[in-house]
Amino acid sequence: MTVPPPSPPLQVAATLLLGSLALLILGLQPLLLGELFTSGRASLDGLGLVAMGEIVALGLGVMLGEVLGLRLDLPRLLLPAILLAIGTDLLSAHAVGDLPLLGLRALAGLGEGLLLWAAVALMVRQPRAEWLSGLFMALQTFCQGLLAAVLALWVLPGAGILGGFLLLAVVTALALPLLAALPRRLAPVARQTASPSSPGWTLPRGLLLACVGAQLAAIGALWAYLEPYGEALGLQPGQAQSLIALSLGAQLLGGLAGAGLVSRLPAPGTLAVVTLLLGSLATLIHGLPVGAHLAFVGFCLLFTFLWQTLTPFQIGLALSLDPRGRTATLVPSLQLLGCAAGPALASLWLNGAEVRPAALASALLSLLALALLGLLGLSARTSRLPSRGRLRRSG
To answer: In angstroms, rounded to a whole number, what is the distance separating the alpha carbons of residues 77 and 200?
Structure first.
């Protein structure tokens, strides 16, 4: 089976930008939710539910796209999704109370998830899907950082939460003209394979998705508490916030590094090494004494750099297990669900203002991801043995 020629550059650029617009909220949540609390529109307890509700709905939106995307033209699916995201942003600007905000942000997450599914589904249909996924991670991190700076420096100080959600609605509306550059229907995924892929779900594919969820849960368990963790070690609030900004820069470099290395390194081994490093860094952070500022900053920057190198290798391994691309399109969904589950699991370990258990939870979740990778390797090897036996007998 031959690999199809790449799509026109304009279509590829529109795809990457569409996915970046879908994920803007991941970088803006801390600012917008903090302003909701400051303005008295949401309680401190409710903020966690609002944040988790939107992220979980984003993941579910990706799954919904996988169900509907092959039955509907892209414009018929994405136009309502964009309008839903814009409408809920506008309503969120005026909403008051935990439950109304939870409902609105969950609906926004569904629309954003459909946009993200379309972007990933189009990416995996490109000859260099793994490289594009790394470039996508870098681009979406850059867009999040840029808009976060605009919000923090100009919009929120002057216009408050009303201006914040209005800006998000205006930027999301940029997805509308992108529809003209996208194809009406998804082309089949055609890739060079040694043997035809099985039509149904297999154990290795399920283990890969579980591993992706565990890896991102390990990351989210520590990332969500990075600012209070830094303050617990003695950083000033302004210094802890600056560390978040530096971490976004490290993520940008990590995405670019992943894009550059994905064609040179084996996916299973690289994922195992990076997961081991993430767990080791979380363990080292857990053991830091109060006042170890430089070590904490260094470990955090390396942790967030490694985070963004994962995605190209996850996509590459997913495509090797399922050349049709169905598993690869679900990788972002499991990433989002893992990001939402990680902080929730870590919170079960926390006691009052003590945040150190978050790092321990991250290390244990990394260990779980390593175990799943080991099972994935064993199951993939076992599933290949019968076919080799049949080849020998037929010979």
So the answer is: 25
Rounded to two decimals, the pTM is 0.86
Distance CA 334, CA 339 (A): 8
* Sign for the pseudo-dihedral over CA of 116, 333, 129, 326: negative
Nearest to 23 by CA among 172, 178, 216, 150: 172
In the three-class reduction of DSSP (H, G, I as helix; E, B as strand; rest coil), residue 351 is classed as strand
CB neighbours (10 Å) of residue 146?
A: 13
Tens of each residue's pLDDT in the chain, 395 residues: 345 567 899 999 999 999 999 999 988 887 888 788 889 998 867 877 888 899 999 999 999 998 998 788 999 999 999 999 999 999 999 999 999 999 999 999 999 999 999 999 999 988 888 899 999 989 998 998 899 888 888 998 899 999 999 999 999 999 999 999 999 888 776 554 444 445 557 899 999 999 999 999 999 889 888 878 888 898 887 787 788 778 888 999 999 999 999 999 999 999 999 999 999 999 999 999 998 989 999 999 999 999 999 999 999 999 999 888 889 999 999 999 998 888 888 888 887 678 899 999 999 999 999 999 999 999 877 766 443 333 333 33
